[in-house]
Amino acid sequence: MSNMSSKLDLSKEFVGRRALVTGGSRGIGAAIAQRLLDAGAKVVVAARSRSDVTPTAATFVSGDVRTSEGVKAIAAETLEALGGLDILVNNAGGSRVFPGGSATIPEEEWQDALALNLLSAIRLTNAVLPALRASKAASVVNISSTAATMPFGPAAHYCAAKAALDAYSRTLAVELAPSGVRVNVVSPGPVATPSADELRRTYPGIPGDAWLQWVPLGRFGATDDIAEVVALLASDRGKWLTGVNYRVDGGMTAR
Ligand SMILES: NC(=O)c1ccc[n+]([C@@H]2O[C@H](COP(=O)([O-])OP(=O)(O)OC[C@H]3O[C@@H](n4cnc5c(N)ncnc54)[C@H](OP(=O)(O)O)[C@@H]3O)[C@@H](O)[C@H]2O)c1
User: Fold this and answer.
1) What PROSITE patterns does its record include (predicted)?
2) Which end of the chain has less neighbouring CB within 10 Å, N or C?
3) Does ligand 1 lie within 6 Å of residue 191's CB atom?
């Protein structure tokens, strides 16, 4: 019951917490990084390059999460900048889509999707695990997708990689629970980010807004909608949550 009043002050709930957000240079990752910064966290964002919406109050670390070397460098630079780690958000992800279906997805695109959406999270978690174990408030949040449970042949590689990320996260949650490291998943539905908007706009046969027919709440998600749930899971408000997968999707998977 200690410290209850500060737990209820959301504007300060991440004071003293150190966070790494991959893919934090834009889109959902930038919103997550900004949400943590706004509540007092020290934040490192990692991506291959900055953008004009990269949170300026965050420390930027450049690297490619698809390779072991890239992940090692990101982990080392992050721990040097922050002196430890409490919150890891594995958000970098995505893939190209192949309207011809799963059989048309080239082998190298499968490798790329698995490296970006699955192996990156595994490697980075392993690289920072000693720091997380040393934290008194350690939390890992992996950003998956409703695609993990809603089959879509043109992105079969992405669906499979995210489904594997979900299974890995549940397994890790149980394994790490005794050490106090919580592991949870947020699965966004269609969120308005420039890259996702472009994909939906150019996808053959489904005009832009037609994607909304699958979203009962009738709008695309905002990046803040995802960031808010990540903040809940990463904060003390979520201290008895581990192994959960929150679908933040305007009701899409409730159908
Ligand atoms: N937007 C949606 O509708 C939606 C729906 C479901 C799930 N998601 C998931 O949510 C996450 C974020 O999606 P988003 O729409 O915000 O994506 P986004 O706008 O395309 O941003 C992706 C971020 O990841 C970084 N990134 C990409 N490849 C990287 C690499 N190889 N190494 C390091 N960083 C890399 C990008 O920066 P650089 O390119 O400079 O590296 C950028 O910061 C992804 O995991 C995605 O699968 C999104």
Assistant:
1) ADH_SHORT (PS00061)
2) N
3) yes
